[in-house]
Design a protein that fits this description.
Elements: E1 5-15, E2 22-23, E3 25-30, E4 33-34, E5 40-43, E6 64-65, E7 74-84, E8 88-92, E9 103-111, E10 118-123, E11 134-137
Antiparallel strand pairs: 1-7, 1-9, 2-6, 3-4, 3-8, 5-7, 8-11, 9-10
């Protein structure tokens, strides 16, 4: 069974009272190593008018923020372009953003087709401390994968 998925996202159902989310840096990791390169980011909404890419730009001076409408869910997605195995998500608020703008309840999800999503990790009642990044480790879910066959007659 395969454990690689092309699309990975953080699916946020509530924050810690800030009315929206603000993220300094997110990394999808394999065995503790950032593999979030060469793909494309997108988000459910954006306060700054970007597509979510600021959360993956490896720049400690930028961030992605949802539109602060207090509408849930919000999500931040990364398309690797091809299936990748992810074993953790690293989250850094970069010390510039309030802890109440970090997610309280959220899922790490994966997809093969950007339509059907599978939970890799479900997190509830998560608390945050200023200037303290968190890494959430998990075993990626497996799927049957797809194989293509050519029948030569």
């Amino acid at each position: 069974m395969a454990t690689t998925w092309q699309y990975w996202r953080v699916y946020i159902t509530s924050d810690n009272g800030g009315g929206g989310i603000e993220i300094g840096e997110v990394q999808f990791r394999l065995n503790g190593v950032d593999i979030t390169t060469g793909g494309s980011a997108s988000a459910s909404s954006s306060f700054f008018g970007d597509n979510g890419g600021r959360a993956f730009d490896k720049n400690q001076g930028t961030s992605w923020a949802s539109d602060f409408s207090n509408v849930w869910p919000q999500w931040l997605k990364y398309d690797f372009g091809s299936p990748k195995k992810v074993t953790s998500v690293y989250w850094d608020m970069n010390g510039n953003w309030s802890t109440n703008r970090q997610p309280r309840n959220f899922q790490i999800q994966c997809s093969l087709n950007n339509t059907e999503w599978v939970d890799a990790l479900v997190l509830t009642n998560i608390g945050w401390s200023l200037n303290v990044p968190q890494e959430f480790t998990f075993t990626p879910p497996s799927h049957g994968g797809r194989r293509e066959y050519t029948i030569i007659g």
